Amino acid sequence: MNYDHSNIMKAAWVIVRRFKGNGESLPALLSRALKAAWFTAREEVRVARMAAKASQKREALANRPVVEIEAEIARLEQKNYQGHEGRERLRELHAALQTAANREAQEKKRALIASAAGRFASVTFIKKDGSRRVMRVQPATLKYHVKGASACEAAQKAMQTRAERHPNLMPVWDAEACAPRSVNLETVSRIAVNGAVHEFAVH
Questions:
Q1: What domains, with CATH codes, occur in the chain?
Q2: Which of 4, 21, 38, 117 is deepest in the core (most CB within 10 A)?
Q3: Phi/psi at 130 (nearest 5 deg)?
Q4: What does R_g of the chain's alpha carbons equal in angstroms?
């Protein structure tokens, strides 16, 4: 993370203008102001780096398999004494467990829907307005109605950005509406595919 020298100089001059006229010479005042501005900038960078490191740590923990997280939680909870570090670790693990469980559930739902291929699957989910919706989808048909790799560069970038920002959304082909749609995997409560029904708890 680089320092913005222009902003540091601007911050220093703000200090100079604030204290100008207190009898201190301009060079001395500017020197003091620059030291204060640099101190603030270094603190901001330090805090930002700590936040980024903590975020990376949480992300790495949440990307572990659920069974691994549950096993570590069980080991910690069985200890007679946990201490501050142990309690903090448990708090991190429980938060990561929820994220990991949601991720694995979405991965399973995505795989189940995709497994229908050219056949039909029935997907039950909760819409934004809270109502229940059942959609009959045919996954393999979607590729015939979207350009995908043959789309222009701007369109491909837009699709990639959308996928990164909304990993919970799965594009599908609505067989009844004969149109492409998106299903929010987070709110999918039931998938009927390949002669089997799969139920999911939706929070």
A1: 5-105 (no CATH), 116-199 (2.30.30)
A2: 38
A3: 90, -5
A4: 27
Q: Cβ of 108: how many Cβ atoms within 10 Å?
A: 14
Contacts of 26 (CB under 8 A, 6+ apart): 16, 20
Cα separation, 99 vs 88, in Å, equals 17
CA atoms within 13 A on the CB side of 177: 12
| Matching residue, tokens 């799969």 | 198
Q: What angle do CA 72, 78, 83 make, to 5 degrees?
A: 85
Tell me the H-state helices in 63-82: 66-77
| Cβ count within 10 A of residue 57 | 12
Secondary structure E strands in the chain: 121-126, 132-137, 169-174, 179-184, 188-193, 196-199
Averages of pLDDT over each 10 residues, the chain, 203 residues? 87 91 88 94 92 91 94 93 90 94 94 93 92 92 70 62 80 91 93 94 81
